[in-house]
Amino acid sequence: MNGGPHPARRRALRAGLGAALGGLLGGALAADGSRQDPGPSGVLRIATGEPTAFYAAFGRLLAAEIEAAHPRLVCRIRTTPGSLTNIELLRDRRADLALVLTDTARAVQAAGPLPGPVPLRAIGRVYETYLQFAVRADSPVRTVADLAGHTVSLGATGSGAAELGERLLRAAGLAPGDVPVRHLPLETAAAAMRTGAIEGLLVAGGVPLPTLSDLDVRPGLRFLPLGGLLARLGGADGRAGAGLEEVSLPQGAYRAAAGVATIGVSNLLVCRPDLDRRVAETLTRLLVLRAGALVPGNAVGTQFLDVRSLIGTGAIALHPGAVRAYRALHG
Predict the structure, then answer these.
(1) I want to staple 174 with a disulfide (CB 3.0 to 4.6 A). Which of 4, 112, 130, 169 is the partner?
(2) What's the whole-number average pLDDT of the chain?
């Protein structure tokens, strides 16, 4: 889409699920709908994102809803750098579900950022966040191509933003080494922005993102336009990025960001293919029926996708349990 979210596609599903729900105890999560069945039980390890960022906020809300609906479940939140780390946790069986950028999930299927493909299935495409590339307001940088010679953070190592950031630089015609790049956690990058140790940072998240709102006050921010780079934002396999589209930063998000063309990034809730089918169905029903309770209060600018778009998971096939739940709920 161009110029911002389509209202018909962005009816408030409010379904941003904190990254990487996972870790079941030996198939104990079997909700068969029987009146005698006490419901699913066990431990869900929820791998989220950075503590002050978008994924973690959704993860905390999701954990609260899961435990309220299924008291025999215990949720354990784990903060992580983001998408790539969360997929590694799935691969290593330290999580059973994960919230990841669609683009990162597709790249991993193509054996891009990791040594080999990681088989994934989707519970659903849950929401769309914004790539936000901010530089200090006193910087002479106006475009990504202007970053040559200017130090920036492209997201923490292990995040989807880190891999996307490197591709953004290439799309802008910058060669390796043209831009001094660091990969810092968000709060560390923010501190470096305040002192002038770095000139800009890239993050994928809802808007306004509290950390960026603070930086917008001091030292002040300028947001770089990214929409024009979308067509050249190919992945490691040479294909265009998945789940990426041009959007505009909304009015009121930050002091001087309204209308800046950036890139919207869709997000998936994914799992390993061997996740218990009944568990996937249970979680899908919770996602749909309790969506309104899963919205961080500050994330007013996030583009939430409607129920129909939940099944639009692209190259990542839906888990059979999710398919069953969606068909039961929506035909």
Answers:
(1) 169
(2) 82
